[in-house]
Write a structure and sequence with these properties.
This protein is mainly α. The chain contains 13 helices and 9 strands.
């Protein structure tokens, strides 16, 4: 009996420690995300404003920035004085901000992966994961509620759900990493192992090929974005100087630009796919033509092209080349298992998965960034996804059929 009581006590203590550890991991992720905008805003409050303004104004601003970073809609009513200085009519008309500053979502996802790995290594991984997720959701609800204000009113349900959803994805990925290292077979994997071999090959190759193709496109977009910023360095510095900000203001602007950097990479990817994107209603930035009206005085936007590219259409080769190379690598591995029509299904599957990934990223990266023309910022998700599907599917089909050696006797492909 004494041994059983001791074992039960140890089990309860381990469970409680796991719950506390998981809750702390979730609270830490929320705290880091909000602290990034809150620290410079608090310094601005103390140094520039001399503590004369209520600090809760800066707290709400930091929370609003964090929530916008996860796609939460915020309804803003501009102050009449500010509207008059900007030349905007109907100052009392609410403006809904729907664009997401993806840098914050990316940070939450990465910290979620770290938390998921740490929680999965405990003795009560499932319980810890649920506790971490519940704690993060409760914290999101509390901070969103604290930011409610007539002049800037975030959506309470979105502020609770969307950051928690991003964190949940990170938790699951982190947990799966630990599971894969331990070579444990979960129920989903056990179910998949029961499929016919050719079905598993089709599904696995489509998922992997599509994900790698989308990642390859984003890698090229990252490099192109970096080159655009480097080559436009002089214009970016000129825009910085035109803002006449002090050191803290410059730091705040730089942090804001880092938050939208993932958006810019996704927009560059849509440019490479073909449709391009918009910076305001009526504007177009695409490989074939660029038409810009008045744009916000954000220094990094100085890297936008200001005219047509003589060889802009060459950007369209990026998704085609990536899709072809990925399929050419997978082709020899699956040629002995699949016939022609099944390879065609794989090509379409790669196009579908890549288009879904690119389309979802485009969808969360675009939206309304302010009043007037700024209600239309970013690419059009459905158009970009449709172009991506066609380009990746065709390129994957060419790559698969080119890399596989036909077997005329069987009408399929020879094993290697």
């Amino acid at each position: 009996m004494a041994a059983e009581s001791g074992g039960t006590l140890t089990f309860d203590m381990n469970r409680q420690l796991t719950l506390l550890f998981a809750a702390f991991e979730a609270l830490l992720v929320v705290a880091i995300g909000i602290a990034i905008p809150l620290v410079p805003l608090t310094l601005l409050w103390g140094i520039h404003y001399g503590l004369a303004i209520d600090w809760t104004v800066f707290w709400r601003a930091a929370v609003d920035i964090w929530l916008v970073g996860h796609g939460t809609d915020i309804t803003v009513v501009l102050d009449p004085t500010v509207s008059a200085s900007l030349g905007l009519a109907e100052a009392n008309t609410p403006v809904t901000i729907t664009i997401a500053l993806l840098g914050f979502a990316l940070l939450t996802g990465l910290l979620g992966i770290r938390a998921g790995r740490r929680v999965a290594e405990t003795s009560h991984a499932v319980l810890g994961t649920l506790a971490s997720l519940a704690t993060f959701g409760a914290a999101s609800l509390v901070v969103t509620f604290s930011a409610l204000h007539p002049l800037a009113n975030p959506s309470l349900w979105q502020g609770t759900l969307l950051p928690t959803l991003v964190f949940a994805v990170g938790l699951l990925i982190g947990g799966q990493v630990v599971t894969a290292k331990s070579r444990a077979i979960g129920p989903v994997r056990r179910w998949v192992l029961g499929w016919p071999t050719h079905v598993r090959t089709i599904v696995a190759t489509s998922l992997r090929g599509g994900a790698i193709s989308a990642a390859g496109l984003l890698t090229i977009a990252s490099i192109a974005t970096m080159l655009a910023i480097v080559t436009s360095y002089a214009e970016i510095i000129r825009l910085y100087e035109s803002l006449h900000t002090e050191v803290l203001g410059g730091v705040a602007i730089t942090l804001g630009q880092l938050a939208i950097l993932p958006n810019l990479i996704v927009w560059t990817a849509s440019w490479l796919v073909g449709p391009g994107f918009a910076i305001g209603t009526g504007s177009t930035v695409s490989p074939l033509a660029t038409s810009l009206g008045p744009i916000p005085a954000i220094p990094v936007l100085g890297a936008l092209p200001d005219g047509e590219f003589a060889f802009g259409f060459m950007g369209l080769l990026a998704p085609v080349v990536v899709g072809f190379i990925v399929a050419a690598v997978f082709g020899p591995r699956i040629a002995g298992e699949l016939r022609r029509r099944e390879l065609a299904i794989v090509a379409v599957g790669i196009g579908v998965i890549a288009a879904i990934i690119v389309g979802l990223l485009v969808w969360v990266s675009a939206g309304s960034a302010g009043p007037g023309r700024l209600q239309d910022v970013g690419p059009q998700p459905w158009i970009v996804a449709a172009w991506a599907f066609v380009e990746f599917s065709v390129a994957a089909g060419l790559g698969l059929f080119t890399s596989a050696r036909p077997d005329r006797a069987e009408g399929g492909f020879a094993r290697r």
